[in-house]
Structure formats: structure tokens, C-alpha cells
Design a protein that fits this description.
Elements lengths: L1 H4 L4 H11 L21 H12 L4 H10 L12 H11 L10
Length: 100
């Protein structure tokens, strides 16, 4: 039904976006309180990062945060400050080479 209403090049773009976001369903944080990833406390940051370390989609999450205009919260195990530092170090180049 909805498919019929979407015309032109918008449908492939929406399908690609949906596919790119499928990783979220497999994230360890999917069933937890999102406030943990957007807190400011050191204890909360450590807890969130510990959960990220063993997450099967950590890299997808980090890719999303680094390639999108996401400037808040912990994504892929990194805080916004850590992600900004990596972007600066990459100097507009490929940041992936800086992240193990």
C-alpha cells in the first residue's frame, strides 16, 4: 500500500535507509533505557561502554555515529568527545583507520 504511494527515486533511498538501520535490532542496548547512553556521569559512561564492548553490532553503531551528524551520546562505545577527536585526527580522511 505505502509502496504504491512512494514514487521515483525516493523508494530505493528509503529501502536503503531501512536496511542500513537493521543493525539496531541486534544491539545489546536495544532493550535497555536509552538514558544510559546519553548521560553525563562517569559511572554511566563506564557502564554503557562496557555493554558496547561485547555488542555484536558495535562497529555498525560507530559507523552510523561517525558518518551521520550525531554529536551526542555514546555510540559504538565512544563518547561524543572521543568521536570528535578521531574526526580531527583523521583530518577529513578515513577515520576508520584510527579505530581498532
Amino acid at each position: 500500500m505505502i509502496r504504491r504511494q512512494i514514487r521515483g527515486s525516493l523508494l530505493p533511498a528509503l529501502e536503503a535507509l531501512a536496511k542500513d538501520q537493521n543493525w539496531r535490532a541486534f544491539a545489546r542496548c536495544a532493550d535497555t533505557d536509552p538514558e544510559l547512553w546519553f548521560s553525563v556521569g562517569a559511572v554511566e559512561h563506564k557502564t554503557a561502554k562496557r555493554m558496547c564492548r561485547s555488542c555484536p553490532v558495535r562497529r555498525d553503531c560507530l559507523n552510523y555515529a561517525m558518518d551521520s551528524p550525531v554529536d551526542h551520546g555514546i555510540w559504538g562505545g565512544l563518547t561524543e568527545r572521543e568521536r570528535r577527536r578521531i574526526r580531527r585526527q583523521a583530518g577529513g580522511g578515513d577515520w576508520r583507520r584510527l579505530v581498532a
